[in-house]
## 1
Amino acid sequence: MSSVQSQQEQLSQSDPSPSPNSCSSFELIDMDAGSLYEPVSPHWFYCKIVDSKETWIPFNSEDSQQLEEAYSSGKDCNGRIVPTDGGRYDVHLGERMRYAVYWDELASEVRRCTWFYKGDKDNKYVPYSESFSQVLEETYMLAVTLDEWKKKLESPNREIIILHNPKLMVHYQPVAGSDEWGSTPTEQGRPRTVKRGVENISVDIHCVNDFRSVSLNLLQTHFKKAQENQQIGRVEFLPVNWHSPLHSTGVDVDLQRITLPSINRLRHFTNDTILDVFFYNSPTYCQTIVDTVASEMNRIYTLFLQRNPDFKGGVSIAGHSLGSLILFDILTNQKDSLGDIDSEKDSLNIVMDQGDIPSLEEDLKKLHLFEFFDVFKKEKVDKEALALCTDRDLQEMGIPLGPRKKILNYFSTRKNSVGINRPTPQSASGANIAKESEFCSRSNTRNDDYLDVGIGQVSVKYPRLIYKPEIFFAFGSPIGMFLTVRGLKRIDPNYRFPTCKGFFNIYHPFDPVAYRIEPMVVPGVEFEPMLIPHHKGRKRMHLELREGLTRMSMDLKNNLLGSLRMAWKSFTRAPYPALQASETAEETEAEPESTSEKPSDINTEETSVTVKEEVLPINVGMLNGGQRIDYVLQEKPIESFNEYLFALQSHLCYWESEDTVLLVLKEIYQTQGIFLDQPLQ
């Protein structure tokens, strides 16, 4: 959306001063009769539907040049595909359509543009069709060559275009209902400006609020040396869409019918967020969600490698809001290597994976109940489904009392033997997440190599990712809250994801959905999260001012308390016995010097403690390889005036935040030994 707006601003800017040597710009040059005609330079655009309106956005110069070269190659355009936008979109040249490669998106029309007219209300330029642009160009060529102007043309929409002279070309819309007999259009209404060419329009400006574009800008400012030395390439960001398939079930429509009409924006946010939470806590939808997310991640990774066979970089993943929780659960249930799967036959995950008909057949043979196999097969009951059956379910299938008791006792015994919670293999660090107040509890399995995760989510099969992520970034994440609600009170400091080395929990201080992680690793210590530096260095000015005022007020408070303490002592000394007069006198003589120092001593102690808290390293476990986990953004000055007003906006700020993007880039490039040009303070 913001990308469209950015490009529209470029298209609607005031007319720049023309170059005396250019005749293919938007501003036409006043030419002498007999001047030589120069063809217009085309540029390629694509159409986006924004708020039910068509908006034409230019391709960047590189993509437009590639499209033009393919168009001018003389080869048949049908079946010709040109990758654009870094390979994220393919343009089918013959169809003049643009298709997303990695995600589902409505195809958009593509046009080779040379002539434009200004819109009626929004003052944005709209390209004419390719066929009519060719007619305009031929008319313009004759007018320039013969120096004969006042040319009038009628567009396919019965609109009038008049070429008065090279600097004045106008477009008239037909007046609706002006003539019942269908007479020819007339020059009525407010004329619109007609433009030729795009040379003076910047087409390399991307959306400044887009995560990908922000990263490209930060590469130029913070990793310039590495780029000049060709040590790094850009970071590609590919979205994983799981929300749309989930919400295609019709539940959204049912929910909308019962939603109150007031505070629309807040209610839409609540419906969109809370509904996903309910979905994820449902056994039916939870399996659908994790399957969709994992399969999309694997599909996008495979497709990217197919389109970029020379790629040798790493892969990191990021999740926002509930998406971060989904990734957390998926990563927690990964296997460290392919060999682990073969050696983990006693894990409940593996038991569920083997829940097919042959496994059920073997169990029934073991119980001497194979005669009922056809009954279960008819009812499409596999091993997993049979484990969920009650006595009444079996009775309705016609299973006698004795066999029913055997089956129920068999599955009940197996459930108790592997523990109610899903066990996972021991990680490389030999530890896992602890349940409730237990630091690290083993499940009651016969295999002592497994630890009980005990995080209380519904029982599902977690798919396996076909790659090992380098880093997991969580934006505005409720992971801490969900783990706490599931009964988890502490995370083992030695726990780490089986296949992912890094984990960063990034949040805005006013984000109502975000929760911390580090207090669950070190519950007995209070400490602040890591403050993310501003991308231009230092803290924001209002934060430094606030800290300065806080220190000043503490100094005043300590001095005032010291003075009150001395005054109180002087009042309480009067009734002392005369016996202590000499002792009191000694105190009085010694106190003026000491009291003048006490406030500063207290302040010094508090300051030193503060410094120590900032300097001394805090052990937050191995979830992020020994590094800090919680990172908080600095709020903007306007946000500090009313944190409630900006609460919802802060939950969506991460995709536009330069500070967030810079932290992501810094951590990703550090895995390759590349560092910032200048460290941020």
## 2
Amino acid sequence: MVGKFVQMHVLNLDFSASLTSFREDCFACMPNLKSLSLCETRIANLWTTSAALSKLPSLVELRFQNCLLCSDTGSSPVSSWNKVNEDMDSKSHRDIGLYIELPSLNGEAIPYLPSGIEYEDMNDYDANHDVRSTAEDSSDDSEFDFSGHRQDFSLMELLPDLPRGWNQLVDQQNEISFGTLDMQDEDQFSPGSSNSRHPSYIASKKYISRHPSPICYEKHYRDYMIASLPNLKVLDNLHIQKVDRETANDSFRRHFEYLPYNMNNKESVVSILQKREVRASPTRTHTSKKKFSYASRKSQHFYSRSLSAAKVGSSTWPTLRPLSVLSSISRDERRSFRPRQFEYHPSESSLMAFGTLDGEVVVVNHESEKIVSYIPSLGAMNSVLGLCWLKKYPSKLIAGSDNGSLRLYDVQSTPTISRGIYHTPVTFDEFDQLTSVHVNSIDELFLASGYSRHVALYDISSGRRLQVFADMHREHINVIKFSNHSPSLFATSSFDRDVKLWDLRQKPNRPCYTASSSRGNVMVCFSPDDHYLLVSAIDNEVKQLLAVDGRLHLDFAIASTGSSQNYTRSYYMNGRDYVISGSCDEHVVRICCARTGRRLRDVSLEGKGSGTSMFVQSLRGDPFRDFNLSILAAYIRPCSSSEIVKVNLLASSDHDKVHSNTRQPHIINGLGG
């Protein structure tokens, strides 16, 4: 919007299906805007949305859904949008509703809505239908039939990027009872009140939520918005009282990180640098050089984290940039690649290798975006699903494809031009339907797994397959990982829902231990120090286990979508400080603290047109740069190639999108990590 809208007090953007996100300064021209309605848009990101709305100093009423109070005589709005609500219901838009039963005190309506519809919590409530059952029993994406409504398009067509679980939520026409909620009026929570925890009477009131935007289905949505917008008085037609704000602030502290490393106050980079310089000045009052040295080391670590927190805090819209490696492979050919797997180099901070759907292996300088080495498929490989660099020999890497081909390449001996002369790579016995390869910490052995219940062990120096360990799981083993420091320990993750730790010194006939998930496991990886195992199961089930015995250390409690095809992958970032997680049915990467599980940020992958969201096929944290990561993003249309997107959380790009052209998400399979 261009211009000044000083006199604008009310803005209704309901049913804006093309509205996916906001610029940081998009509301700067509306200083007196008091009421904003955003029902049935495609707004989904809590962080960018609240940051944009915080620029509205006069905003007191906000809607992302239309919550109405139900009675025997009909539905009536709780807030002041009476006329707008009537207009919404009289329009030709389809009437979507979830009936919600909430408590009230002494017959009075309680102005409170639970924080989103959390799929995994549905079993705790009295619902007539299991919301997730349809998606788990079938992989088909069936659409709800809206032929009986007044409109010839569905919510899924309006909002093509909804998680598959929304299909089931939209299909629910029954009331969902949320039981009794311990809510009281403000004066009942006075410090001297003896009944501050136990109201004398609780009666149920029912609300129906109509036309919700995707943001409403985020976990703790209501608490987050109330805590982030302190001047807000009405959210989704429900008034915000003092007890609601206190509850929301407490919920925010428990479930979200305001700044990285549990920093509570935003500071400028200049201020932090000044403090660091003052601390490091030659004027010392320490009586002991040893004490000063210890304090100096400690302070450097503290200031490094403080700088990161300051930069992340000022970069709500992080920089997203596609890795552009469109280059001349030969003198008469210019082409792009279709990446399917990628890995950062373990010791060269500028290098990255990726394998393609066409069987090529490409090593690039991801800083300059120049190709360092190009290895064609030579007709021997299909999609490259497994890549692993050697550590002691940093110019070598293992590549495995889905047709079972396994090769060791030395990238220093391969040219950048496809018509050059190649040194013969080391080839290994094939492993059929391969999905994963991994080298041990001393570059002597590597393992391969795939669409079978077996694991193969190879000797790198001789090129021989040493052994095949049969029937290690009941179903196929998607990902296998050696530990980072012990050359004999490795972990396997299988779609049989088990993760197992093995020791080659014990000739793995039986695992050291077995840990189970509630769904099939997509992948597993060790933390950089081998203290933890990070396990990712289908549909956002992400847990951190103690590597020593497999006990649960942390459940990240990411909301599921209800899709049995939503393959989730998670890795560490900033050493073992943070976890990044993404799924192939969603266009968002979630960043959580690995120590507390609290959510720091969501990064959304979006295009500029309707239906252009990109979906997460794989991802990695940059091992050399804090709060940097790369995402392998893909599209639905086969003609649209997947690509690697670099994300820098320390630098702001405001509203920059990854693409300006209209594309569709690419179909993703569940193979590999």
